[in-house]
């Protein structure tokens, strides 16, 4: 049988697809709210503002002053390191100061010991000088003392008989107790002289010469008696 009518929508039986729900379906979207439509613009504005702030911070240098959350930790670490370094430097300076103080104390102690040693040596030297001065004073005192008990021999080298004895009598009257007269036994000097052997007899010899009126007084070695008076014309 030949088809007499054209097939149309109504020619098919109705199914679930012929009664779709109201509203858009599939790829179709319903009308969006004003807030959702404004979000892209807000994002663009925020990005633009951030970009502008970044450009301004880089250009003005203010970006270096921005503190990031991790910057505080780094600053704290750096501060701790600086404090530790400062403490170490202070400790080192204190150690050096104490070392210098100890060295200065040691030097002062050495100087004190040196001064003490020098003072002790100086004291010993002064004592030795005092002893030497005392000895010299004693010697000088002994030299200046006239001992009338010293043995004196008067030698007559003249042609005058009894001339030596007359001088012996003069010395005896002056207080001398050990005076003797004799004749020459060897070489005689060229002029009248009073000889003495030791420095301790010098004062006595000078007194003998003064008593006898003799000006020539000499020290001589190898004398038999401490003082010898040689009389010449």
Please tag this protein with its features:
233 residues; alpha/beta; five-stranded mixed sheet; 54% helix
Beta-strand percent range: 5-15%
Sum up the overall morphology in one term: rod-shaped
Q: Strands of the largest sheet, in order across it? A: 2-1-5-3-4
- Tally of helical runs: 4
Q: What profile does the largest beta sheet have? A: 5 strands, mixed
Mean pLDDT across all amino acids: 76
Lay out the secondary structure:
Layout: H1 34-60, H2 69-144, E1 152-156, H3 163-173, E2 179-182, E3 193-196, H4 202-212, E4 217-219, E5 227-231
Parallel strand pairs: 1-2, 1-5, 3-4
Antiparallel strand pairs: 3-5
How does this structure look, described?
- This protein is α/β, with parallel strands linked by helices and 233 residues long.
- Helix content is 54%, strand content 9%.
- It contains 4 helices and 5 strands.
- It has helices spanning 34-60, 69-144, 163-173, 202-212, and strands at residues 152-156, 179-182, 193-196, 217-219, 227-231.
- Strands 2-1-5-3-4 form a 5-stranded mixed sheet, with helices on one face.
- The longest helix is centred in the middle third of the chain and has 76 residues, at 69-144.
- It is rod-shaped and about 215 Å long.
- The protein starts with 33 loop residues before the first helix and ends with a strand.
- The relative contact order is 0.07.
